[in-house]
Amino acid sequence: ELPFIPLALSVGLCFSLYHCSFSQLIYQFIYGVALTLLVISSKSVIPCIIAHLLNNLTVLVLEYFKVNIDLTNPILIIVGVIILVLFFVFTILDIVKEQKDKESISKDIKSKSLKGFYLSAFFGMLLCLILIISSVFGG
Q: Residues 25-44: pLDDT tens digits?
């Protein structure tokens, strides 16, 4: 019933489809949801931009120095999942607390803004889905 959940899932889906990488679809979706929750929790896009920059920079540095990380290593997977779960739990608890403390917004304004967001998100996801399908079947 919390409005940030459908928002975070929708943005996560848009984020993963925008990157047009079928092999990383699940990772990009989770990362998109996490970045959305970070924006909601911090009330600023700056931490999200920094996190995305650091992620991309890390990938570039590892590729440049030809560092190979075994992503199937069970210890790496367990530690990664624990960190991810802790991030989601603490961030969601922070958002829920903030929503309880905040004054409620009228349903009409909220409804109109969400309708506009979902309409825009739908067309964006449709475009990205077409790009993914054309890249998979187009060669």
A: 898 999 999 999 888 888 88
Name the helix (H) or strand (E) containing 113.
helix 107-137
CA 138 to chain centre: 27
* Distance of alpha carbon 85 from alpha carbon 66, whole angstroms: 29
- CA–CA separation, 121 vs 52, rounded Å? 20
pTM reported for the whole predicted model: 0.69
* Three-point CA angle 94, 32, 125, nearest 5°: 130
Q: For 43-56, how does the pLDDT look when each residue is reduced to its tens digit (9 = 90+)?
A: 888 888 888 988 88
| C-alpha to C-alpha distance for 39 and 54, rounded to whole angstroms | 16
Name the nearest CA neighbour of 88 among 5, 14, 6.
5
Q: Is 128 within 8 Å of 18 (Cβ atoms)?
A: yes
Q: Please give the Cα distance from 16 to 60 (Å, whole number).
A: 19
CB-CB contact of 47 with 39 (8 Å): yes
Q: How many CB atoms lie within 10 A of CB 7?
A: 19
